[in-house]
Structures are given as structure tokens and as C-alpha cells.
Amino acid sequence: MELKPVTQRFIVHWGEMGSRWGVNRTVAQIHALLYLAGRPMHAEEIQETLGVARSNVSNSLKELQSWRLVKVVHQLGDRRDHFETSTDVWELFKLIVEGRRQREIDPTIGVLRECLANPELAKEDEGAQTRIRETLEFIETMNTWVDEMMRLQPETLMKTLGVGAKISRTLRKPGK
Predict the structure, then answer these.
(1) How far from 80 is each of 30, 57, 62, 73, 134, CA to CA, in Å?
(2) pLDDT for the residue numbered 140
(3) Helix or strand or coil: residue 38?
(4) In the chain, which ranges are continuous DSSP H helix?
(5) What is the pLDDT of residue 42?
(6) How far is residue 150's CA from residue 98's CA, in Å, rounded to a whole number?
């Protein structure tokens, strides 16, 4: 597959953004390629299109599968595994949010709860105790909010976000 300039720019940028989000550049680029292609691709085609090592493609596809962002599909008459991702941006967003929650938020909540349950907490500075409690409360509140937003249909979520933006603009002080 030959990449046209705009597609190439998108894939390169997605790789750069992936690096900033803590995701390997090639992992992000492969996901972007599959997303824009909108069709299953086999590993060799991905390798040739992006000009990356076969082992890098293999490892990246495994990581994308662990995030449930890419799945293996088979095509009649072809023994190779082909890989595809959803082309529904909302479905991808939900998968990414859930994956990040499992890897980052849930363990943090667990550690904060452990800290608060630890009898040694009483020996800590009062300010530190308060900040641990406030951090847990904040993260749990945000987690509940995300749960509620993720239950909405995409159209309803977009309307909700639009209303929230209007409210924010109305409440914001002029010049800020």
C-alpha cells in the first residue's frame, strides 16, 4: 500500500502523539494505518507500508491486541493472519479509556486505598493524610463521571459536551 501525503502525515503525527501518551511510536502508527485503511491488512503489508522491521510489527500488533484495539481476522484463500481495527472513533475512544483505566487509574485507586487503610498513616503528616484522601476522592469522582459519560450514546455524549462547553463559557469571567 502506498501512502498518500495526507495519510502519511496523519500516521506520522499519530506516532508522535502516541509517544507523548506513553505508547510506542510504531504501535501508534500501525493503529493509525489500520484505522485509515479501513480494511484488514497482513503483517507483511504493514511492514512494507510503514518501512519498519517485521519483529517491530509483530510486537506492536501484540500490544494493540492486548489493548483490544486490533483483532485478527482471516480471509478466504489466505493462510496469513490479517489485522483490523474499528473505524468507529467512539468505539476506539471507549476502548482506549477503558484500557488506560485498567492500567493506570485502577492501580492508583488501589494504592491510595491501601495507604488510607494502613495503620502507619496516623504517623504521617496531617497535610499528607489530607492530600491522599483528597486525591482518592477526586479520582473516584472523576471515575464515576467517566462511567456515566461512557454509558451515553455518541450523539447524546456530543450534545452533553456541547452543553458543558456553553455552560463553561457562560460562567467564565470575561478575558479569561
Answers:
(1) 17, 14, 15, 9, 52
(2) 96
(3) coil
(4) 5-20, 25-37, 43-50, 54-66, 89-100, 106-117, 126-151, 154-171
(5) 96
(6) 9
Residue type, 42: H
Minimal CA–CA distance to 18: which of 66, 71, 60? 60
Residue 175 is predicted with a pLDDT of 66
Q: What is the DSSP string of 103-128?
A: IIIHHHHHHHHHHHH-GGGGGS-HHH
Q: In angstroms, rounded to a whole number, what is the distance separating the alpha carbons of residues 88 and 24?
A: 22
Mean pLDDT of the 73-90 span:
93
Confidence of residue 128 (pLDDT cuts 50, 70, 90): very high
Residues forming a β-bridge with 41: 83
Distance CA 112, CA 129 (A): 10
Contact predicate 18/27, CB 8 Å: yes
